[in-house]
Amino acid sequence: MGSLVLSKGMRGRIDRVLREYHQKAKLEKHGLSHRRKILLAGPPGTGKTLTASVFAGELGLPLFTILMDKIVTKFMGETSAKLRQIFDVVQERRGVYLFDEFDAIGGERSRENDVGEMRRVLNSFLQFIERDDSDSLIVAVTNNPRILDQALFRRFDDVLHYHLPEKSEIRKLVENRLGTFRPKKVELDSGADIAESLSHAEIAQACDDAIKEAILSDRTTITPSLLKQMLNERKSAYGASANQSKTTSA
Ligand SMILES: Nc1ncnc2c1ncn2[C@@H]1O[C@H](COP(=O)(O)OP(=O)(O)O)[C@@H](O)[C@H]1O
Ligand SMILES: [Mg+2]
Fold first, then answer.
1. Which residues contact 46 (CB under 8 A, 6 or more apart)?
2. For ligand 1, is residue 46 a contact (CB within 6 Å)?
3. Are residues 126 and 227 in the same domain?
4. Strands 96-99 and 63-66
5. Ligand 1 atom at minimum distance from 42 CA
6. Mean pLDDT throughout 81-100?
7. Most exposed: 66, 80, 111, 195, by fewest CB within 10 Å?
8. Per-residue model confidence as pLDDT tens digits over 24-66
9. Range of the domain at 193
10. Is 248 within the bounds of a domain?
11. Which residues crowd ion ligand 2, with CB under 5 Å?
């Protein structure tokens, strides 16, 4: 899980999933089951999808990603049949099954009257999850915890809430990402101020932008001011898109 930068609390939660999985036989002897149906919730770019691949890597299991959008058709019966096929595979072939942004189902045709249909698909999906008693790890991801109610949370063995990075995480993330391009004197604190309110993914991108700039101008390290500039660019891009989504949702 080297590249994943998380708060201590979150790291502990992820470790617990791994520890329970590794030692599930021990738990079974006492009539207990390991957590294996996990919901990851939080804003985009905070490491949810990355976490699923960390699970697969650490457990030595193949990672399968299910594209929920491709499964949902106009016909509920057909959709359920496809879900059944997937959960048959979950049972037969041990792995990490990532249902990424599972609640974005049918997002493109989400006219008002399709909301009811989306609910039905969601419920069907949750029933499959509830019934599943395989050896696989099921990871469901959502960017939109608002639509998640308590009934939904209860179907999962654990719910992990992701957040935008705090200062210490920002520093760690920047250090990791810049690698050998890191300036000798780490003057990243003012960068950390700028980076607040950016996601892990956006900060990582700003670091990559700074590295590219350094490479193109034949330098072996980046300057703190270059990093600041790239962070500011990400920030204004983010501000623009945030405003945009405000107008579209109004
Ligand atoms: N917590 C994190 N630690 C390190 N890198 C991260 C983290 N979150 C996101 N990233 C970077 O951003 C990319 C996209 O993140 P991703 O896991 O897809 O976010 P999400 O699924 O939450 O939208 C990752 O591949 C990684 O490079
Ligand atoms: Mg994702």
1. 162, 163, 164, 165, 199, 200, 201
2. yes
3. no
4. parallel
5. 22
6. 96
7. 111
8. 999 999 999 999 999 999 999 999 999 999 999 999 999 999 9
9. 167-235
10. no
11. 49
